[in-house]
């Protein structure tokens, strides 16, 4: 077991340095984190820019208790904005207004809406009230009082995790290397990774049977490194990205892991993020994550110098009922449980089960964003992504003329609409065949949007009984039709036959 290096504080012990809201604070006896962030709540309206020159802003919240500038020394506020969040230092709280200074202010025109970037949730989706999270160590259930002379936290022994990095490996050559059976608890986010593997030549670099808990920083990044395997690990209550491989990696393998309550910092983070050649992401379980579970490909704004290809299969991805009902306190906008960026070479996403996934606005089961191209979606089961789509691959040809090409969508089983829009050019390589639209008799069949495609077979329309976190539940007639699909043996463990 490894707890990140730092300082131990008890009643009367001297506090060293400045309070860092990006550090993990852990009770050294129970190894549970000391949580000094509030739940995400709604303000009473939008942020008001009080003074544009100094970037002083005001967040209206009638329940806020007045605090002087001195009392706000350790107070911070996080405000979600579209697909990111920003942390600001609180200046004071007066008459139900939380004053903070923004790092920058952009005035934005977006369609019929306009305003400052601090209100981007409104600009993107029309949200009339800003959400925010407040960092106040003195206002928790077990208050921690921080002063110049010391830290008082009752009879608790608190450890501040100030270190960030456990391992950095760069420009080395190893036949094999492994980390196994280590429990990592806490660290501090200093724009580094807990594990950083850069330009390492190896026949096999394996991280297995480890636990990562309450990690504030990104956990693992591999750059220009082949043959990385991350397997049979548990990643729990971590703030940022989990496993990342850059576009210059080959043969990254991520299998048989559990990711729970990750991406909790309300940023555009993924539990697994693969960009290289021949990645393989399979048999993982993702639950109650923040922005997305799996990200693939290269963003259109980045240069892609290497092949980006691989397989994502047999993963289970979803929220439990409590997390889904409370989604406004955890999620952002414009995301997908599986998310594909514009630039891919041959991404195959098949035989995954996605259930009970949603967010603040435009959060799809599989989101093929910004005109993503060169991928296949085969035999995925996607249920309960309301109010958004099961699969969304909208056209971005006006912005990216060569987008939305070479795509196959076949045998996917969904209960929400599919949007699949191909490039308008002839021979765009966009093919759809025999997707299955599930519906309940009293709800009607989902209405799909298909444009500029080659259609091999029509979609099937079948009734179903429901779903749970293990799969869909179907009647005998639907079972008989599904078992004739070419991919049925690959997905049958997600299909349960209903019996009265």
Termini separation: 49 Å
Mean pLDDT: 92
Arrangement of strands in the largest sheet: 1-18-21-24-27-30-33-36-39-42-45-48
User: What is the tally of helical segments?
Assistant: 4
Report the β-strand fraction as a percent range.
35-45%
How many strands, what sense, and barrel or not for the largest sheet? 12 strands, parallel
- How does the helix and strand content classify structurally? mainly beta
Strand tally is 51
Inertia-based shape: globular
Radius of gyration: 24 Å
Instruction: Detail the poorly predicted runs.
Output: none
Q: What's the helical proportion of residues?
A: under 10%
Topology summary:
Elements (H helix, E strand, L loop, with lengths): L1 E2 L2 E4 L14 E4 L13 E2 L5 E4 L4 E5 L15 E6 L2 E11 L2 E5 L5 E4 L2 E4 L3 H6 L5 E5 L9 E2 L4 E2 L5 E4 L5 E4 L2 E8 L2 E3 L7 E6 L2 E8 L2 E3 L4 E6 L4 E4 L2 E3 L6 E3 L7 E3 L2 E3 L9 E5 L4 E4 L2 E3 L4 E5 L12 E5 L2 E3 L2 H5 L7 E8 L5 E5 L2 E3 L5 E8 L6 E4 L2 E3 L7 E3 L13 E4 L2 E2 L3 E4 L8 E4 L2 E4 L9 E3 L2 E4 L2 E4 L2 E3 L2 E4 L1 H7 L5 H4 L3 E3 L3
Parallel strand pairs: 1-18, 16-19, 17-20, 18-21, 19-22, 20-23, 21-24, 22-25, 23-26, 24-27, 25-28, 26-29, 27-30, 28-31, 29-32, 30-33, 31-34, 32-35, 33-36, 34-37, 35-38, 36-39, 37-40, 38-41, 39-42, 40-43, 41-44, 42-45, 43-46, 44-47, 45-48, 50-51
Antiparallel strand pairs: 2-15, 3-15, 4-12, 5-6, 6-9, 7-8, 7-12, 8-9, 10-11, 13-14, 49-50
């Amino acid at each position: 077991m490894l707890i990140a290096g730092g300082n131990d504080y008890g009643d009367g012990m001297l506090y060293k340095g400045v309070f860092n809201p990006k550090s993990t604070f852990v009770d050294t006896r129970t190894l549970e984190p000391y949580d000094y962030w509030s739940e995400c709540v709604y303000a009473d309206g939008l942020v008001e820019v009080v003074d544009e020159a100094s970037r002083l802003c005001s967040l209206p919240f009638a329940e806020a208790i007045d605090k002087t500038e001195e009392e706000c020394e350790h107070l911070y506020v996080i405000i979600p904005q579209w697909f990111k969040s920003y942390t600001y230092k609180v200046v004071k709280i007066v008459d139900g207004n939380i004053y903070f200074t923004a790092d920058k202010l952009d005035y934005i025109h977006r369609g019929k809406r306009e305003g400052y970037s601090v209100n981007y949730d409104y600009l993107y989706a029309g949200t009339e009230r800003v959400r925010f999270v407040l960092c106040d160590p003195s206002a928790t259930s077990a208050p921690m009082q921080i002063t110049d002379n010391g830290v008082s936290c009752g009879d608790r022994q608190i450890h501040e995790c100030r270190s960030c990095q456990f391992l950095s490996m760069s420009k080395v050559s190893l036949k094999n290397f492994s980390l196994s059976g280590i429990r990592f608890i806490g660290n501090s986010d200093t724009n580094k990774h807990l594990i950083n593997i850069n330009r390492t030549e190896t026949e096999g670099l394996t991280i297995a049977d480890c636990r990562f808990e309450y990690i504030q920083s990104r956990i693992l990044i591999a750059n220009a490194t082949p043959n990385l395997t991350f397997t049979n690990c548990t990643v729990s209550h971590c703030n940022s990205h989990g496993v990342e491989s850059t576009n210059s990696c080959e043969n990254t393998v991520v299998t048989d892991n559990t990711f729970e309550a990750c991406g909790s910092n309300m940023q555009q983070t993924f539990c697994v993020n693969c960009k290289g050649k021949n990645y393989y992401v399979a048999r993982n379980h993702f639950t109650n994550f923040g922005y997305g579970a799996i990200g693939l490909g290269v963003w259109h704004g980045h240069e892609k110098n290497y092949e980006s290809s691989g397989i994502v299969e047999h993963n289970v991805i979803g929220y439990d009922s409590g997390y889904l009902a409370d989604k406004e306190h955890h999620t952002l906008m414009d995301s997908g449980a599986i998310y594909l960026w514009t630039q891919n070479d041959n991404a195959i996403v098949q035989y995954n089960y996605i259930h009970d996934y949603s967010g603040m606005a435009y959060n799809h089961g599989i989101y093929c964003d910004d005109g993503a191209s060169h991928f296949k979606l085969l035999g995925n089961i996607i249920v309960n992504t309301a109010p958004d789509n099961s699969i969304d691959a909208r056209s971005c040809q006006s912005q990216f003329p060569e987008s939305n090409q070479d795509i196959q969508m076949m045998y996917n089983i969904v209960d929400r609409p599919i949007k699949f829009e191909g490039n308008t050019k002839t021979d765009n390589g966009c093919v759809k065949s025999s997707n299955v639209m599930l519906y309940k008799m009293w709800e009607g069949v989902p209405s799909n949007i298909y444009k500029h495609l080659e259609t091999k077979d029509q979609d099937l329309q079948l009734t179903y009984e429901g779903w749970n976190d293990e799969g869909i539940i179907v009647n005998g007639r639907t079972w008989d039709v599904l078992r004739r699909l070419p991919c049925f043996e690959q997905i049958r463990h997600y299909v349960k036959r209903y019996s009265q």
